[in-house]
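Q: what does this look like with magnesium ion bound?
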Amino acid sequence: MSVTITLNQGSGGKQTHRLIENVFVKRFGIAEPLTDSALVRNRGMDIVFTTDSFVVDPLFFPGGNIGKLAVCGTVNDLAVSGAVPVCLSAAFIIEEGLPEGDLVEIVQSMADEAEKADVKIVTGDTKVVEKGKCDKLFITTSGTGTINPDQWHISIGERIKPGDKLIVNGSLGNHALAVLGARNQLSFRTPVISDCASLNHLIGKVLKISGNIHFMRDLTRGGLATVLNELAAMIGTGISINEGSVPIDDPVKGLCEMLGFDPLYLANEGKILIVARAGDESKVLDILKSDPLGKDSHIIGEIMDDRRSRVILNTVSGGKRILEMPSGIQLPRIC
Ligand code: MG
C-alpha cells in the first residue's frame, strides 16, 4: 500500500516536523536549525529570507483576509528573526470562478498592509487553474530583510540562560477562533476578531530599548505550546509557564471550553513570544504596553535551570503539568 500525505502532517506539530525532516531537510541539505527565516551570509552580505503559503478558509474573516494574513505572516517571520523587512514577493493560484471583486479587495488589503509595515511588494506571479483544482485562492509570499550582525543569535536562542523571562504581547487564540467562526458561519455572542497584524515596528522598538532580547518567535500554527516545545528542544533546557499569567480573552476562554480547544495550542497572527534577559523584562514590558499591538503584554514564565527539555505549566489550581508538543490537528486551514 502506498503511503499518502494526511492533514495531520500540516498541523505544525510532531507530524509536520517529521515530514519536514524526512522529506525536505535531508534532500535540500539544510544544516542550520529550522527557524522563522533563513539567515544567509554570502560574500560579506547578511540576508534574511523567508517564505509562506496561505490557504485559509474562508478567504475573509473578522479582522482580515487571506491577503492581509500573507503580508503580516511574512513580515513577522522576518521581524522575529531580528531583521528589518525590506521587500516581499506574492504569488497567486486562483481558481476559475473567483469573483474579481474579491481578488481586488484582497490585493488592496495586501497593498495597505505593506504600506503600514513599510515594505514593498516588488515581484509576483499569477496562475489560474480550472474550477475544482484549488479552493478559490492560495497565496505564497516570500520576503527578505536586512539584519544587524548583533541580532543573528536571536532566532536560534543562542544566548538564552536560566532565569530569562518569557513575554507575550497579548491575548492568545483569537485568530483561530475568528476563522473557525467565519468558516462555520457561527455567530458568537461576543464577536472574536483575528489579531492579524504586522509586528515589525513594535519589535523594532523592543530591540531599540533592550540589547538583551535572547529569542523571538511568532505564535502561529500550533500556538504558544508548540513554540515553547520547539524552543525547549532547541536550547536543551526546561521552561516554566504560569497558566494564570497567560492572557486569554474571556470570549475565547468560553468558546474553547465549549468547543473543546486549548487556547495554548491555537494559532495567532499578531502575537509573539519574547525571551529577555532577567532584569530587562520590565522595560521590555513597558515599551510593549505603550503600543496598541502590545497593550495586553504579560510576563508568562521563565527559562529553568533544568537540562530536561520540558515545558512545565504551573496551573491556576496550584498543580503542575507538562505542556506537550501537539500531535494531530486541531483546526486545518487557519492560515
Ligand atoms: Mg513564524
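The pocket of magnesium ion is lined by residues 36, 77, 218, 220 (CB under 6 Å). The chain has two domains: 38-151, 157-322.
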